[in-house]
Amino acid sequence: MPGWQELHEELQEEGFTVIAVAIDENLDSIIELANGVTYPVLMDKDHLLTELFAISNVPSVIWIDEDGKISRPAASEFGTDTFSEITGISREGHMQQVREWVRDETLPEDASFIVDDLSDEEIQARLHFRLAAHLRRNNMIAESEKHFDYAIELAPLDFTIARASMPLRGGDPFGEEFFELYQKYQDAGSPFHGIPRKNQTS
Amino acid sequence: MKDDSEITILTNSVTSIAGHWDEGDPFVDPAEIKAVLGWEIKPEGLCKDDICIPVNHEQSINHQERYNLRTVAHLTGHPTLISQELKTITIGQPASLRSSALRDKRAPDFILPDIEGVDRAFSDWAGKKRLLVAFSSW
User: Fold this and answer.
1) Does any domain span residue B51?
2) Is B79 near chain A, with CB under 8 Å?
3) Please, which residues 45-64 of chain B have a Cβ atom closer than 8 Å to chain A?
4) How far apart are the C-alpha atoms of B72 and A127, rounded to whole Å?
5) Once rounded to an integer, what is the mean pLDDT over residues A147-166?
6) In the prediction, which pLDDT does B3 show?
7) Which pLDDT score, from 0 to 100, does residue A166 have?
């Protein structure tokens, strides 16, 4: 968040804003992450955005222009370089591209990429996830667990389902479970709804 | 009305409406169809703004003055997850909104609460270049 804050401050007088959307229901954690942030931060506990834009992991960053046209579709981009050794993605290249978009209307070559639509399984997985999260909020734990299981069965490598469900089910999204998921994801060729990375770390 | 019951509707909000079940399908009043999906039942079919989808009345869309929400959602392009056991219907976004984002590069508008709990529309910031960052604590 602090990285996006710097970019927001730098460009906000030039008709630009960052809008962050938390694909998350943990308001306390998000408020903590948003400390010192002056751009809008919205809460999407039911993962509406993952359906509207076919988002399958975070961070996913989308550029949208003044008229609501998508100038560059979803890509994993980071506000900080904390994870750059793991992801092979550094923040500065992207931030420079954003400056050029805002100031000169120039777009990188990959901006015209067409992101794959969700499969029927991925759509149904989102509905099962939403139902499971709702049941859990109403303390119907056994039913909730069943629908989390269905969701993961339908979209096992979708992080907005498989990883997002971990803290909701008492698991650790930064623990062993996550590393197992990440390994399976890499073994499957890192399927992602967004601009693919040329230099994935292997 | 037989087996009249409360049905929970999960869209991007939670609402509760009256309806009944028939062979696993939920039947609700036309006013609820409009409230939930935004489509109105008119003589010419299912209508929203200037668009009307003709309805073949041979399809068992209505029953005791109520309409089959499964059929209506299907006709209007909404995916559903329907559980009579839980008396809950989960309704997703129409595929056309997403394909317009992916193929035609039109960003769909959406309304979500900010961290103060105030509903904000993405279009509130129209006129600016917007960097939409989906993130999480997980």
Assistant:
1) yes
2) yes
3) none
4) 17
5) 98
6) 66
7) 97
